[in-house]
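Tutorial sheet, problem 5. The two components below are modelled jointly, 408 residues in total.
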Amino acid sequence: MNQSQYPSALLQKAVTEISRLPGIGSKTALRLALHLLKQDVVEVDALADSIKELRHNITYCKVCHNISDTDICEICSNSARDKATICVVENVRDVMAIEGTLQYKGVYHVLGGVISPMDGIGPADLEIESLVERVKQGGIDEVILALSPTMEGDTTNFFIYRKLQDTGVKISVIARGVAQNDELQYTDEVTLGRALAGRVPFKM
Amino acid sequence: MNQSQYPSALLQKAVTEISRLPGIGSKTALRLALHLLKQDVVEVDALADSIKELRHNITYCKVCHNISDTDICEICSNSARDKATICVVENVRDVMAIEGTLQYKGVYHVLGGVISPMDGIGPADLEIESLVERVKQGGIDEVILALSPTMEGDTTNFFIYRKLQDTGVKISVIARGVAQNDELQYTDEVTLGRALAGRVPFKM
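Model answer (C-alpha coordinates):
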Protein backbone atom coordinates (compact mmCIF):
# COMPACT_ATOMS: atom_id res chain seq x y z
CA MET A 1 0.00 0.00 0.00
CA ASN A 2 1.39 3.38 -1.00
CA GLN A 3 2.19 5.45 2.09
CA SER A 4 1.12 8.65 0.36
CA GLN A 5 -2.42 7.26 0.09
CA TYR A 6 -3.12 7.76 3.81
CA PRO A 7 -5.76 10.47 4.05
CA SER A 8 -4.24 11.88 7.23
CA ALA A 9 -0.70 12.46 8.46
CA LEU A 10 -1.81 11.60 12.02
CA LEU A 11 -3.16 8.28 10.83
CA GLN A 12 -0.02 7.58 8.83
CA LYS A 13 2.19 8.34 11.84
CA ALA A 14 0.20 6.06 14.14
CA VAL A 15 0.24 3.26 11.55
CA THR A 16 4.00 3.66 11.12
CA GLU A 17 4.57 3.47 14.87
CA ILE A 18 2.22 0.52 15.44
CA SER A 19 3.75 -1.43 12.54
CA ARG A 20 7.16 -1.25 14.25
CA LEU A 21 5.83 -3.83 16.70
CA PRO A 22 7.01 -7.38 15.96
CA GLY A 23 4.58 -9.43 13.88
CA ILE A 24 2.40 -6.44 12.99
CA GLY A 25 2.44 -5.35 9.35
CA SER A 26 1.08 -2.12 7.92
CA LYS A 27 -2.35 -3.62 7.14
CA THR A 28 -2.84 -4.87 10.70
CA ALA A 29 -1.49 -1.56 12.03
CA LEU A 30 -4.08 0.32 9.96
CA ARG A 31 -6.83 -1.96 11.24
CA LEU A 32 -5.73 -1.35 14.84
CA ALA A 33 -5.44 2.42 14.31
CA LEU A 34 -8.95 2.59 12.84
CA HIS A 35 -10.22 0.49 15.73
CA LEU A 36 -8.66 2.92 18.23
CA LEU A 37 -10.36 5.82 16.44
CA LYS A 38 -13.72 4.26 17.25
CA GLN A 39 -12.94 3.81 20.95
CA ASP A 40 -13.54 6.27 23.78
CA VAL A 41 -10.76 8.76 24.41
CA VAL A 42 -10.48 7.39 27.96
CA GLU A 43 -9.76 3.88 26.70
CA VAL A 44 -7.19 5.00 24.14
CA ASP A 45 -5.44 7.12 26.78
CA ALA A 46 -5.45 4.15 29.16
CA LEU A 47 -3.69 2.04 26.54
CA ALA A 48 -1.11 4.70 25.70
CA ASP A 49 -0.46 5.54 29.36
CA SER A 50 -0.09 1.91 30.39
CA ILE A 51 2.58 1.44 27.70
CA LYS A 52 4.45 4.57 28.80
CA GLU A 53 4.24 3.71 32.49
CA LEU A 54 5.41 0.18 31.83
CA ARG A 55 8.51 1.41 30.02
CA HIS A 56 9.27 4.33 32.36
CA ASN A 57 8.56 2.77 35.75
CA ILE A 58 9.39 -0.91 35.41
CA THR A 59 12.14 -2.22 37.66
CA TYR A 60 13.99 -5.47 37.76
CA CYS A 61 14.56 -7.56 40.86
CA LYS A 62 18.10 -6.91 42.09
CA VAL A 63 18.50 -10.59 42.97
CA CYS A 64 16.96 -12.60 40.12
CA HIS A 65 16.57 -9.83 37.48
CA ASN A 66 12.93 -10.74 36.86
CA ILE A 67 10.51 -7.91 36.08
CA SER A 68 9.22 -6.51 39.34
CA ASP A 69 7.46 -3.52 40.86
CA THR A 70 9.87 -3.55 43.78
CA ASP A 71 13.64 -3.78 44.29
CA ILE A 72 13.33 -7.40 45.39
CA CYS A 73 10.60 -9.36 43.59
CA GLU A 74 7.79 -11.23 45.30
CA ILE A 75 9.40 -14.61 44.69
CA CYS A 76 12.83 -13.62 46.04
CA SER A 77 11.28 -11.93 49.08
CA ASN A 78 8.96 -14.87 49.85
CA SER A 79 10.30 -16.68 52.92
CA ALA A 80 8.53 -19.89 51.88
CA ARG A 81 10.70 -20.25 48.76
CA ASP A 82 13.82 -22.40 48.80
CA LYS A 83 16.67 -19.91 48.27
CA ALA A 84 19.24 -22.70 47.84
CA THR A 85 17.79 -23.76 44.48
CA ILE A 86 18.12 -21.42 41.49
CA CYS A 87 16.27 -22.08 38.25
CA VAL A 88 17.98 -20.32 35.32
CA VAL A 89 15.52 -19.15 32.64
CA GLU A 90 15.63 -16.98 29.56
CA ASN A 91 12.88 -14.49 30.36
CA VAL A 92 9.87 -13.55 32.47
CA ARG A 93 7.54 -15.66 30.32
CA ASP A 94 9.47 -18.76 31.32
CA VAL A 95 9.16 -17.78 35.00
CA MET A 96 5.41 -17.46 34.50
CA ALA A 97 5.25 -20.84 32.72
CA ILE A 98 7.16 -22.61 35.50
CA GLU A 99 5.15 -20.86 38.22
CA GLY A 100 2.06 -22.09 36.37
CA THR A 101 3.08 -25.72 37.02
CA LEU A 102 2.85 -25.07 40.81
CA GLN A 103 5.69 -27.61 41.09
CA TYR A 104 8.67 -25.39 41.76
CA LYS A 105 9.42 -23.91 45.17
CA GLY A 106 12.92 -22.54 44.55
CA VAL A 107 13.93 -19.15 43.16
CA TYR A 108 14.91 -17.96 39.69
CA HIS A 109 17.65 -16.22 37.75
CA VAL A 110 16.44 -14.48 34.61
CA LEU A 111 19.17 -14.20 31.96
CA GLY A 112 17.29 -11.77 29.73
CA GLY A 113 17.97 -13.89 26.64
CA VAL A 114 20.26 -16.63 25.36
CA ILE A 115 23.63 -16.49 23.63
CA SER A 116 22.88 -15.93 19.95
CA PRO A 117 25.78 -14.72 17.78
CA MET A 118 23.37 -14.40 14.82
CA ASP A 119 21.42 -11.74 16.74
CA GLY A 120 24.56 -10.17 18.16
CA ILE A 121 23.81 -11.38 21.70
CA GLY A 122 26.90 -12.48 23.60
CA PRO A 123 27.39 -13.63 27.22
CA ALA A 124 28.10 -10.04 28.33
CA ASP A 125 24.61 -8.98 27.22
CA LEU A 126 23.04 -11.48 29.62
CA GLU A 127 22.82 -11.78 33.40
CA ILE A 128 25.41 -14.57 33.49
CA GLU A 129 28.10 -12.77 35.50
CA SER A 130 25.52 -11.89 38.17
CA LEU A 131 24.53 -15.57 38.35
CA VAL A 132 28.15 -16.59 38.90
CA GLU A 133 28.45 -13.92 41.62
CA ARG A 134 25.24 -15.15 43.25
CA VAL A 135 26.52 -18.73 43.36
CA LYS A 136 29.96 -17.66 44.64
CA GLN A 137 28.35 -15.78 47.54
CA GLY A 138 27.35 -19.21 48.84
CA GLY A 139 24.19 -20.80 50.18
CA ILE A 140 23.27 -22.31 46.80
CA ASP A 141 22.88 -26.09 46.54
CA GLU A 142 21.65 -26.49 43.00
CA VAL A 143 21.42 -24.55 39.75
CA ILE A 144 18.76 -25.88 37.37
CA LEU A 145 19.30 -24.91 33.75
CA ALA A 146 15.82 -24.46 32.24
CA LEU A 147 16.52 -22.93 28.83
CA SER A 148 14.75 -23.94 25.64
CA PRO A 149 16.32 -27.00 23.97
CA THR A 150 17.52 -25.01 20.97
CA MET A 151 21.04 -24.51 19.65
CA GLU A 152 21.17 -21.13 21.41
CA GLY A 153 19.82 -22.60 24.65
CA ASP A 154 22.32 -25.45 24.54
CA THR A 155 25.19 -23.02 23.86
CA THR A 156 24.13 -20.90 26.83
CA ASN A 157 23.75 -23.99 29.06
CA PHE A 158 27.27 -25.04 28.13
CA PHE A 159 28.69 -21.57 28.74
CA ILE A 160 27.07 -21.35 32.19
CA TYR A 161 28.19 -24.89 33.05
CA ARG A 162 31.80 -23.96 32.26
CA LYS A 163 31.52 -20.82 34.41
CA LEU A 164 30.04 -22.70 37.39
CA GLN A 165 31.76 -26.08 37.28
CA ASP A 166 34.55 -25.04 39.68
CA THR A 167 32.15 -23.66 42.32
CA GLY A 168 31.10 -27.16 43.44
CA VAL A 169 27.40 -26.34 43.07
CA LYS A 170 25.16 -29.10 41.67
CA ILE A 171 24.21 -28.23 38.11
CA SER A 172 21.20 -29.94 36.52
CA VAL A 173 19.23 -29.47 33.33
CA ILE A 174 15.48 -29.98 32.82
CA ALA A 175 14.54 -33.37 31.35
CA ARG A 176 14.21 -33.63 27.61
CA GLY A 177 12.00 -36.23 26.05
CA VAL A 178 8.71 -36.86 24.35
CA ALA A 179 6.13 -34.24 25.40
CA GLN A 180 2.93 -35.29 27.17
CA ASN A 181 0.27 -36.35 24.63
CA ASP A 182 2.69 -36.15 21.69
CA GLU A 183 2.34 -39.05 19.28
CA LEU A 184 5.55 -41.02 18.90
CA GLN A 185 5.24 -41.36 15.12
CA TYR A 186 5.26 -37.58 14.71
CA THR A 187 8.11 -36.93 17.16
CA ASP A 188 11.33 -35.74 15.51
CA GLU A 189 14.39 -38.01 15.51
CA VAL A 190 16.51 -35.86 17.83
CA THR A 191 13.82 -35.76 20.52
CA LEU A 192 13.10 -39.47 20.17
CA GLY A 193 16.81 -40.36 20.21
CA ARG A 194 17.35 -38.29 23.36
CA ALA A 195 14.26 -39.76 25.01
CA LEU A 196 15.61 -43.27 24.37
CA ALA A 197 19.12 -42.44 25.56
CA GLY A 198 17.71 -40.73 28.65
CA ARG A 199 15.34 -43.53 29.64
CA VAL A 200 14.65 -43.98 33.35
CA PRO A 201 13.44 -46.95 35.48
CA PHE A 202 9.71 -47.52 35.18
CA LYS A 203 7.68 -46.55 38.25
CA MET A 204 4.03 -47.18 39.05
CA MET B 1 -2.61 -18.02 32.04
CA ASN B 2 -3.47 -16.98 35.56
CA GLN B 3 -3.53 -13.19 35.84
CA SER B 4 -2.08 -13.30 39.35
CA GLN B 5 1.08 -14.86 37.93
CA TYR B 6 2.27 -11.59 36.39
CA PRO B 7 5.37 -10.56 38.32
CA SER B 8 4.48 -6.86 38.07
CA ALA B 9 1.26 -4.87 38.27
CA LEU B 10 2.59 -2.46 35.62
CA LEU B 11 3.20 -5.35 33.25
CA GLN B 12 -0.21 -6.82 33.99
CA LYS B 13 -1.92 -3.49 33.30
CA ALA B 14 -0.13 -3.00 29.99
CA VAL B 15 -0.94 -6.58 28.92
CA THR B 16 -4.60 -6.07 29.86
CA GLU B 17 -4.79 -2.85 27.85
CA ILE B 18 -2.96 -4.24 24.81
CA SER B 19 -5.10 -7.38 24.78
CA ARG B 20 -8.22 -5.24 24.42
CA LEU B 21 -7.13 -4.63 20.81
CA PRO B 22 -8.99 -6.79 18.28
CA GLY B 23 -7.20 -9.99 17.34
CA ILE B 24 -4.62 -9.69 20.12
CA GLY B 25 -4.84 -12.25 22.91
CA SER B 26 -3.08 -12.15 26.26
CA LYS B 27 -0.08 -14.15 25.04
CA THR B 28 0.55 -11.82 22.10
CA ALA B 29 -0.04 -8.83 24.39
CA LEU B 30 2.61 -10.13 26.79
CA ARG B 31 5.02 -10.66 23.90
CA LEU B 32 4.42 -7.08 22.71
CA ALA B 33 4.76 -5.65 26.24
CA LEU B 34 8.08 -7.45 26.77
CA HIS B 35 9.23 -6.24 23.36
CA LEU B 36 8.40 -2.64 24.34
CA LEU B 37 10.39 -3.05 27.56
CA LYS B 38 13.48 -3.71 25.46
CA GLN B 39 13.02 -0.64 23.26
CA ASP B 40 14.36 2.87 23.84
CA VAL B 41 12.14 5.13 25.95
CA VAL B 42 11.99 7.54 23.00
CA GLU B 43 10.54 4.89 20.71
CA VAL B 44 7.95 3.71 23.24
CA ASP B 45 6.89 7.30 23.88
CA ALA B 46 6.61 7.89 20.13
CA LEU B 47 4.23 4.93 19.83
CA ALA B 48 2.10 5.97 22.81
CA ASP B 49 2.00 9.62 21.72
CA SER B 50 1.08 8.80 18.13
CA ILE B 51 -1.89 6.76 19.38
CA LYS B 52 -3.04 9.55 21.69
CA GLU B 53 -2.60 12.24 19.05
CA LEU B 54 -4.47 10.16 16.49
CA ARG B 55 -7.46 9.77 18.78
CA HIS B 56 -7.43 13.33 20.17
CA ASN B 57 -6.69 15.34 17.03
CA ILE B 58 -8.22 13.40 14.16
CA THR B 59 -10.93 15.17 12.21
CA TYR B 60 -13.34 13.99 9.58
CA CYS B 61 -13.99 15.72 6.26
CA LYS B 62 -17.23 17.71 6.58
CA VAL B 63 -18.21 16.71 3.03
CA CYS B 64 -17.34 13.03 2.62
CA HIS B 65 -16.69 12.06 6.28
CA ASN B 66 -13.37 10.47 5.42
CA ILE B 67 -10.55 10.75 7.99
CA SER B 68 -8.71 14.00 7.37
CA ASP B 69 -6.28 16.45 8.96
CA THR B 70 -8.39 19.36 7.69
CA ASP B 71 -12.07 20.34 7.63
CA ILE B 72 -12.33 19.45 3.96
CA CYS B 73 -10.18 16.48 2.92
CA GLU B 74 -7.60 16.52 0.13
CA ILE B 75 -9.86 14.63 -2.26
CA CYS B 76 -12.91 16.85 -1.73
CA SER B 77 -10.80 20.02 -2.03
CA ASN B 78 -8.99 18.83 -5.16
CA SER B 79 -10.34 20.80 -8.15
CA ALA B 80 -9.28 18.04 -10.54
CA ARG B 81 -11.77 15.57 -9.01
CA ASP B 82 -15.21 15.08 -10.53
CA LYS B 83 -17.60 16.35 -7.83
CA ALA B 84 -20.67 15.05 -9.70
CA THR B 85 -19.76 11.41 -9.04
CA ILE B 86 -19.94 10.07 -5.48
CA CYS B 87 -18.58 6.65 -4.58
CA VAL B 88 -20.21 5.32 -1.39
CA VAL B 89 -17.84 3.18 0.70
CA GLU B 90 -17.84 1.62 4.14
CA ASN B 91 -14.61 3.05 5.55
CA VAL B 92 -11.29 4.78 4.94
CA ARG B 93 -9.62 1.50 4.01
CA ASP B 94 -11.98 1.18 1.05
CA VAL B 95 -11.13 4.74 -0.01
CA MET B 96 -7.46 3.81 0.10
CA ALA B 97 -8.08 0.62 -1.88
CA ILE B 98 -10.00 2.44 -4.60
CA GLU B 99 -7.45 5.28 -4.72
CA GLY B 100 -4.84 2.56 -5.16
CA THR B 101 -6.44 1.52 -8.47
CA LEU B 102 -5.72 5.03 -9.88
CA GLN B 103 -8.94 4.52 -11.89
CA TYR B 104 -11.40 6.70 -10.04
CA LYS B 105 -11.53 10.46 -10.41
CA GLY B 106 -14.77 11.22 -8.55
CA VAL B 107 -15.28 11.89 -4.86
CA TYR B 108 -16.36 9.67 -1.94
CA HIS B 109 -18.90 9.34 0.81
CA VAL B 110 -17.69 7.30 3.78
CA LEU B 111 -20.57 5.66 5.67
CA GLY B 112 -18.50 4.61 8.67
CA GLY B 113 -19.87 1.06 8.54
CA VAL B 114 -22.72 -0.97 7.10
CA ILE B 115 -26.14 -1.79 8.47
CA SER B 116 -25.68 -4.78 10.76
CA PRO B 117 -28.48 -5.53 13.23
CA MET B 118 -26.37 -8.32 14.74
CA ASP B 119 -23.79 -5.72 15.82
CA GLY B 120 -26.44 -3.18 16.76
CA ILE B 121 -25.59 -0.89 13.83
CA GLY B 122 -28.63 0.73 12.25
CA PRO B 123 -28.98 3.35 9.48
CA ALA B 124 -28.91 6.16 12.05
CA ASP B 125 -25.40 5.14 13.13
CA LEU B 126 -24.08 5.67 9.61
CA GLU B 127 -23.57 8.72 7.39
CA ILE B 128 -26.60 7.89 5.24
CA GLU B 129 -28.72 10.95 6.03
CA SER B 130 -25.76 13.20 5.14
CA LEU B 131 -25.45 11.38 1.81
CA VAL B 132 -29.13 11.99 1.04
CA GLU B 133 -28.66 15.67 1.96
CA ARG B 134 -25.60 15.88 -0.27
CA VAL B 135 -27.49 14.44 -3.24
CA LYS B 136 -30.54 16.66 -2.63
CA GLN B 137 -28.35 19.77 -2.67
CA GLY B 138 -27.86 19.04 -6.37
CA GLY B 139 -24.94 18.85 -8.75
CA ILE B 140 -24.64 15.07 -8.41
CA ASP B 141 -24.96 12.91 -11.54
CA GLU B 142 -24.16 9.47 -10.19
CA VAL B 143 -23.90 7.61 -6.89
CA ILE B 144 -21.77 4.47 -7.11
CA LEU B 145 -22.46 1.94 -4.36
CA ALA B 146 -19.12 0.28 -3.57
CA LEU B 147 -19.87 -1.76 -0.44
CA SER B 148 -18.63 -5.29 0.15
CA PRO B 149 -20.88 -7.94 -1.45
CA THR B 150 -21.99 -9.32 1.91
CA MET B 151 -25.47 -9.58 3.39
CA GLU B 152 -24.81 -6.38 5.39
CA GLY B 153 -23.44 -4.58 2.34
CA ASP B 154 -26.42 -5.64 0.23
CA THR B 155 -28.84 -4.52 2.94
CA THR B 156 -27.14 -1.13 3.12
CA ASN B 157 -27.13 -0.81 -0.68
CA PHE B 158 -30.86 -1.51 -0.74
CA PHE B 159 -31.56 0.98 2.06
CA ILE B 160 -29.58 3.74 0.31
CA TYR B 161 -31.23 2.92 -3.01
CA ARG B 162 -34.69 3.33 -1.44
CA LYS B 163 -33.63 6.67 0.08
CA LEU B 164 -32.23 8.02 -3.19
CA GLN B 165 -34.56 6.57 -5.83
CA ASP B 166 -36.84 9.62 -5.88
CA THR B 167 -33.99 12.12 -6.32
CA GLY B 168 -33.48 11.19 -9.97
CA VAL B 169 -29.74 10.63 -9.48
CA LYS B 170 -28.20 7.69 -11.36
CA ILE B 171 -27.45 4.88 -8.89
CA SER B 172 -24.98 2.18 -9.86
CA VAL B 173 -23.27 -0.65 -8.03
CA ILE B 174 -19.75 -2.00 -8.61
CA ALA B 175 -19.56 -5.08 -10.83
CA ARG B 176 -19.65 -8.47 -9.17
CA GLY B 177 -18.11 -11.46 -10.81
CA VAL B 178 -15.17 -13.82 -10.80
CA ALA B 179 -12.07 -12.08 -9.40
CA GLN B 180 -8.95 -11.67 -11.53
CA ASN B 181 -6.77 -14.81 -11.38
CA ASP B 182 -9.40 -16.79 -9.45
CA GLU B 183 -9.81 -20.34 -10.68
CA LEU B 184 -13.35 -21.07 -11.83
CA GLN B 185 -13.45 -24.52 -10.19
CA TYR B 186 -12.84 -22.99 -6.77
CA THR B 187 -15.28 -20.09 -7.17
CA ASP B 188 -18.39 -20.34 -5.00
CA GLU B 189 -21.79 -20.92 -6.63
CA VAL B 190 -23.27 -17.50 -5.78
CA THR B 191 -20.34 -15.64 -7.35
CA LEU B 192 -20.34 -17.89 -10.40
CA GLY B 193 -24.12 -17.65 -10.81
CA ARG B 194 -23.98 -13.86 -10.62
CA ALA B 195 -21.05 -13.71 -13.02
CA LEU B 196 -23.04 -15.76 -15.55
CA ALA B 197 -26.22 -13.72 -15.09
CA GLY B 198 -24.22 -10.49 -15.38
CA ARG B 199 -22.31 -11.46 -18.54
CA VAL B 200 -21.31 -8.63 -20.88
CA PRO B 201 -20.47 -8.52 -24.64
CA PHE B 202 -16.92 -9.69 -25.34
CA LYS B 203 -14.48 -6.94 -26.31
CA MET B 204 -10.93 -7.22 -27.62
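Marking note: The longest helix of chain A spans residues 41-57. Full credit if you identified this.
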